[in-house]
Specification:
Order of helices and strands of chain A: EEEEEEEEHHEHHEHEHEHEEHEEEHHHHH
Number of domains of chain B: 2
Strand order of the largest sheet of chain A: 1-14-13-17-15-16
Structural class of chain A: alpha/beta
Distance between the termini of chain A: 53 Å
Number of strands of chain B: 0
Strand content of chain A: 15-25%
Mean pLDDT of chain B: 87
Largest sheet of chain A: 6 strands, mixed
CATH class of the domain at 119-280 in chain A: Alpha Beta
CATH topology of the domain at 119-280 in chain A: Rossmann fold
Oligomer: heterodimer
Radius of gyration of chain A: 21 Å
Number of helices of chain A: 13
Distance between the termini of chain B: 56 Å
Largest interface: A-B, 69 and 44 residues
């Protein structure tokens, strides 16, 4: 029997990666200003430790982690602190941020730093180095990486799963990382395995990236157990639970975490970033971002200083076309539409996708005809049709009984719904309403 | 730099291209060859009856439905399907009333598209069967002058059909049930037999249904399970007593089974949402069809079989909820809440 390399259900959106899949990563010039939100990660926002007028070098810490699930923020360019205040946030609305006027003629050479020697560090030392560098998951959710490197003592983790699926349409960030920096990915895997004390790592890559599979395979180390697992192309292959199911055939329990089945999942870009921390000593102050979509004049894969305003990033790609209609942070399936082009790129921003009038989905919806397509699409086997009906009646508690909390908001149901019912939007509302009920 | 106005919508920002109206109009399109076949066999009468039934549906939808719902194509499907399950000789006004009943009482009173429990076209036919039993069971023969009307199609409203000089005959199922005469399988398959307008061309219906199934506009599990159940059940009986019970192929290609299984039972609104549910639903229909045909008082049982199973759909849905990823199988009690 052939080895199963997929999860059940899911959808097949158009891949649309050809816009940028073949383009080498280039570095964008420093913008005139960078804005670093204090909340770029899951968990508590960082606390600012600089004042207006302070001069900072590239890589200096400007925000301190506030608690265990939090992450420090570093200056992504040398310059002067212009403002510590509210600024448009990619998720909508305004949030506290630190604005730095970038020094125009600075060489942007970071302060000489001590590069931590990973070979000489033990578990605690490695975790601390990762924490100090402000590394978070670069796949979108931006969960602080150091937390994931310290599972509770009673949880046995036996495998690290590296997520190179990149199942979102358009995005090629992870793809290009694997093609251009395979050695860095391998070093990152090695460091992570040491930090977690795990013997086995598997890198899962969707089959639509043959060059990435080949490059990663060619650089596999021979002294440790690291393998590549090509995967069926399907959305949401990159969702942790689906990836674990597809690669290891283990089912994460409802409400549980990957470590409950002995697995830790890290995104390929996060792994490469960790390697970079131990190569250069620099914290997470820049990342690779795919700027793409038919609404961008020159789609590109760019190395972008964290905090670059969307406006400056788009200018580095020759700007928007006349029919650009919607700007999305992240992929088109789970990303957020951005209203204000002043919103900055954050640590977790995988890409900026600009849709044209032709690409945006229709706004009209029809009554549910109970076709059942959503049930066939849901990767966690919910009944979105039933949940949607409950949500429209605002029967939140009943939604919880129907396992609303297992929903990952992947958007498969909305994508496939012929009546264009905004199911995942309704579920977002339902989850928020339930949180409110619980808090009260 | 002037900021262009951007759209802010919730994710996902992509959508599959198959919209509900697109599905509906594809079903309409796939019915065209079947209507064509009925015109080939029954001449102008087929056009008049199907047209009247469709007009009844569309007018009712337009008059009582929500604004703009004519465009979604669902009333058109109901109209065509109702026309196809009427005898060729029925007066046009009856077909029209049937259409109005289908949409009015079969759909709009429930709250419009997506809310009805029973298949509207079948409900319309059940109504006509009760109201005009004679007109609904008079089957004109197909081998007539092509241009001749097959009955008093033009009877005035509220009048019964006049006795016109039309040859009538029994349907293959009627022949089998009441006279124990079998009809040749080949004629059944290409539709050269007596019956309702669209009950005839079995192979053509399979072809059109196959197209819809490929495009995922119908759930293939429903017709497959109906065919399988009917075939297995009737063939077993046939082996027991070949003189009393017809064989599987006769059962499959006679009467309204093809049209019912492919176009009526698969109506998305009135069939289960889960795939296991679709198997149960189809098997239930298959068993009921055989039971009614062979042991019931009627020659044909597809309509009542589907309507009965329609009523059970909410229960089937509840009983066949999938196991949530990473969770224990739902207990029936939990599923019932």
């Amino acid at each position: 029997m052939a080895h199963r390399t997929r999860f059940r259900h899911g959808v097949h959106p158009p891949e649309l990666k050809e816009l940028t899949a073949g383009l080498a990563i280039r570095r964008m010039p420093f913008p005139g200003e960078v804005v670093l939100p204090l909340s770029q990660h899951t968990g508590k926002p960082a606390k600012p430790i600089v004042r207006v007028g302070d001069r900072v070098e590239r890589g200096d810490k400007i925000g301190e982690a506030d608690g265990f699930i939090s992450s420090p923020i570093h200056a992504s360019a040398a310059g002067t602190i212009e403002e510590v205040g509210l600024w448009p946030h990619p998720t909508g609305g305004y949030q506290p941020a630190i604005r730095i006027r970038v020094e125009q003629f600075s060489a942007q050479v970071p302060r000489p730093r001590i590069i931590p020697d990973w070979k000489g560090l033990d578990h605690d030392g490695l975790v601390e180095a990762v924490r100090k560098a402000g590394v978070v998951g670069l796949g979108g959710a931006a969960f602080p990486t150091h937390v994931k490197l310290q599972p509770p003592k009673d949880q046995q983790v036996d495998t690290i799963l590296i997520n190179g699926a990149e199942c979102e349409p358009y995005l090629t960030t992870d793809h290009r990382t694997m093609v251009e920096y395979p050695e860095r990915v391998q070093l990152g895997v090695r460091i992570m395995m040491k930090a977690l004390g795990v013997e086995r790592a598997v890198i899962g890559i969707e089959r639509n990236k043959p060059d990435a599979i080949e490059r990663i395979r060619a650089t596999l180390p021979s002294d440790i157990d690291v393998t590549v697992q090509p995967l069926t192309v399907k959305y949401p292959q990159g969702a942790e639970k689906m990836l674990i199911d597809a690669v290891l055939h283990r089912e994460v329990p409802s409400g549980g975490l990957p470590m409950h089945v002995g697995v830790v999942v890290h995104n390929v870009a996060s792994v490469a970033t960790i390697a970079e921390v131990f190569e250069t000593g620099l914290p997470l102050i820049e990342r690779i971002v795919t700027v793409t979509g038919f609404g961008v004049k020159k789609p590109s894969n760019l190395i972008v200083p964290v905090g670059t305003k969307t406006r400056d990033l788009l200018d580095a790609c020759d700007g928007l076309t006349d029919d650009a209609r919607e700007v999305i942070f992240g992929g088109p399936m789970m990303g957020t539409a951005v209203a204000d082009l002043d919103a900055p790129i954050m640590k977790g921003t995988t890409g900026v996708v600009v849709l044209t009038q032709r690409d945006v989905k229709p706004q009209e919806s029809y009554p549910c005809i109970r076709c059942g397509h959503c049930l066939d699409a849901c990767p966690v086997f919910l009944n979105p049709q039933q949940l949607g009906k409950l949500a429209m009646a605002e029967r939140w508690e009943e939604m919880e009984q129907e396992h609303l909390m297992d929903c990952m908001l992947c958007g498969c149901c909305s994508y496939t719904c012929p009546s264009n019912i905004p199911l995942s939007q309704l579920f977002t509302m339902g989850k928020a309403a339930l949180r409110k009920v619980k808090a009260a | 730099m002037s900021t262009p106005r951007f759209l802010i919508t919730a994710s996902p920002h992509l959508a599959e291209s198959d919209s509900t109206p697109k599905i509906m109009w594809h079903v309409v399109l796939s019915l065209v060859p079947i209507v064509g076949a009925s015109v080939y066999y029954f001449g102008p009468s087929a056009v008049l009856v199907t047209g009247a039934a469709t007009a009844g549906c569309l007018l009712t939808e337009w008059a009582f439905g929500k604004k703009g719902t004519l465009k979604d194509g669902s009333a058109m499907i109901t109209g065509l399907l109702l026309g196809l399950i009427l005898p060729a000789g029925i007066p046009m006004w009856m077909a029209f009333v049937g259409g109005a009943f289908s949409i009015g009482f079969g759909k709009i009173v429930f709250g419009g598209l997506g809310q009805n429990i029973f298949n509207p076209a079948l409900l319309g036919r059940a109504f006509l069967q009760a109201a005009f039993p004679v007109a609904m069971t008079t089957w004109p023969v197909i081998r007539e002058n092509w241009w001749a009307l097959r009955g008093d199609n033009l009877a005035l409203p509220l009048m019964s059909a006049k006795e016109v000089d039309v040859l009538t005959a029994a349907t293959p199922l009627g022949l089998m049930k009441f006279e124990r005469t079998a009809t040749e399988l080949g004629s059944l398959m290409i539709g050269a037999t007596e019956g309702s307008l669209g009950e005839t061309a079995g192979l053509l219906i399979l072809l059109c249904g196959g197209y819809l199934a490929l495009r995922k506009f119908l759930n293939w599990r429903i017709p497959a399970s109906i065919f399988l159940t009917v075939a297995v059940f009737s063939q077993l009986l046939h082996w027991l007593d070949a003189t009393r019970y017809p064989d599987a192929l006769f059962m499959l290609f006679s009467g309204g089974l093809m049209l019912g299984a492919v176009y009526m039972a698969t109506d998305m609104v009135t069939s289960p949402v889960t795939n296991p549910g679709c198997w149960i639903f189809g098997c239930g229909i298959g068993v009921l069809v055989v039971v009614i045909r062979l042991w019931g008082g009627l020659a044909e049982g597809v309509m009542y079989a589907i309507l009965l199973m329609n009523a059970l759909v909410p229960f089937i849905n509840r009983a066949t909820q999938p196991r949530v990823f990473g969770a224990q199988r739902r207990t029936p009690k939990e599923a019932a809440t």
